[in-house]
């Protein structure tokens, strides 16, 4: 249960910090943090929670990461469902908290006909810069694949594990710097689901892509790392 609570709190912090920065701080005139600030916020959530609770649960905070670690031989299949449930509950709890805070400002209402509404992900008309379904799928697949390669490499028993959290957090920052204009950046099915549920409409109907592409990318990364990159011969 401690592992599941760690995943709950870690995913809660990721969604609250990352999506919260997009909702509250990104667009304030003259003082807003913009895309770069949101990207850094997501990276910082993972970095801080990796050191706070990563030693308890492994610090997944993301269903795609759990699948990728399973594919890489680092995580047992029997724990996949409990971890994913804990991650989704944590993400939904964070989205609920964000909604309560966000609704406290007069005039705030979710417009689910607008790209990026309530920090949701999307493609086509719901991509921040109008990218197609195919572009969104490729971006989410490739970026999650490389995110898992970083995670698997940084946490390898032959790597310097003290700096793993920094490498992983910076990787997530880079991922957001690349892909916020494409999909508003997911690479995390729980993060996408939580915002889509509160947004509704077309963003909710598009959420399938932000489960399928990241999970496929993560699984491919796991098998690639295990077969091509992992050092099986080192003592």
TrEMBL record:
**Which Gene3D superfamilies does the protein's record reference?**
Glycerol uptake facilitator protein
Membrane-spanning segments: 12-28, 34-53, 80-102, 131-151, 163-182, 208-225
What are the record's GO terms for cellular component? membrane
GO MF annotation list: channel activity
Q: Membrane topology per the record?
A: Multi-pass membrane protein
The protein's matches in InterPro entries, at most eight in alphabetical order, are given as: Aquaporin-like, Aquaporin_transptr, MIP, MIP_CS
Q: Does the keyword Transmembrane apply?
A: yes
Pfam families the UniProt entry points to: MIP
Which keywords describe this protein according to UniProt?
Cell inner membrane, Cell membrane, Membrane, Repeat, Transmembrane, Transmembrane helix, Transport
What are the subcellular locations of this protein?
Answer: Membrane
The protein's superkingdom reads Bacteria
User: Mind telling me which SUPFAM superfamilies this protein's record contains?
Assistant: Aquaporin-like
Family, as annotated: Belongs to the MIP/aquaporin (TC 1.A.8) family.
Q: Which NCBIfam families match?
A: MIP, PRK05420.1
Full protein name: Aquaporin Z
**Biological classification of the source:** Bacteria, Pseudomonadati, Bacteroidota, Flavobacteriia, Flavobacteriales
